[in-house]
Design goal:
- The chain is an all-alpha fold and 86 residues long.
- The protein has one domain.
- It is built from five helices and no strands.
- The chain is extended and about 60 Å long.
């Protein structure tokens, strides 16, 4: 399925949101009239869309890597170091 105009604008925001003076959540509300939660749900769907990958491969791959790192961090057991104190 082809990307919508909103889909492309979401990817465009992810490419350069930090270059704007406003915080990202304010930009999301202003541009899309969406909650931050709903925005991230839509973004997560886009990351698995091959059309999104074709539209902006650098952004999609970067976001996929970030998502994968967060998943691994949640799933890997945490190591507690023993300092030798009783």
């Amino acid at each position: 399925m082809a990307l919508t105009d909103r889909d492309r604008k979401i990817l465009d925001l992810e490419r350069a949101w930090w270059t704007e003076a406003e915080p990202k959540d304010a930009q999301i509300r202003e541009r899309f009239e969406l909650s931050t939660t709903r925005y991230h749900q839509l973004l997560a769907e886009l990351l698995d869309d091959e059309e999104a990958l074709s539209y902006d491969p650098l952004v999609v791959r970067r976001l996929r890597r970030q998502r994968d790192r967060r998943r691994r961090a949640r799933l890997e057991p945490r190591v507690v170091e023993d300092d030798g104190a009783p």
